[in-house]
Structures are given as structure tokens and as C-alpha cells.
Amino acid sequence: MQRRSDSARCESGPTGRLRQRPGAAARRRMSIPIVDAHGRIVGWTDVTPEFRGASLHQPEAERLLGAAYLAAYVRIEDAEDAERAGAPPGWQGGWRCLALCSARLVSGRAGDPIVPVAVRSPRHGNA
Questions:
Q1: Integer angstrom CA distances of residue 107 from 4, 19, 37, 102, 122
Q2: Per residue in 51-86, pLDDT tens?
Q3: What is the pLDDT of residue 10?
Q4: Where are the domains of the chain?
Q5: Helix, strand, coil shares of the chain as percentages rounded to 5?
Q6: For residues 16 and 13, what is the distance between their CA atoms, to the nearest angstrom?
Q7: What pTM value is reported for the model?
């Protein structure tokens, strides 16, 4: 068993990678970014999206993006936004996570599974 500076307990999983065990850091709250067609975080949600039939539904994403959105991986470069999306405090470099993204943003990225988020999120409004 190894110790990290953030006091999270880790153990080696079946693939040899470290995985976090439940602890204070694992219970830290994180939000899901909502990303528009220009690659900007336009909002955040703490409400897990639901599937209804073959469609993904999440009220805040529908309000901000309309009906055409989907879940996709994004890379967040801003440290504050990355931490809000689940990065450990003090994380350096881009943070990859799932986001609710405009379908127009994702449809033009054939072959590249990670969508870069180009602009910091607004600091006001969506909490």
C-alpha cells in the first residue's frame, strides 16, 4: 500500500495501475462540465444525466445546449476548472474527463476522441 500527499489511500489494481480507495479525497465533490459548440465551458452540473431509451437527458445541459448534446471526453487546461471537474488539488497539465458537449463540437472531431476546452468557464452564474 502506498501513501500520497493528499492522504488518499491507493492500491495496485489488476492492471498494475494505482486506484484510489474510499477516503477523504475520494469523497471530494466534483461537477460535470457543460461545453458549447465553441469548446467553452458554459455551465456545470452535479446532477447525473439519465438515459431514456437511447437518448441522454440532463436538464441543465438541455437548457444551455438544446437537445443536441452528448457525453464526450474533454481536456481542461485551466487548473481551477480541472479541480472542479475532479482533478486532485495542485494537478499540473491538462485534465481529461467526461463532459456534456454540444453535438456540433463533437461531430467535427472525427478520429480525435479528446475535445480540448479552449476557454475558461465563466466564474459567475452556474454553480
A1: 39, 32, 10, 9, 24
A2: 988 888 999 999 999 988 989 889 999 999 999 999
A3: 32
A4: 1-28, 31-117
A5: 15, 35, 50
A6: 5
A7: 0.69
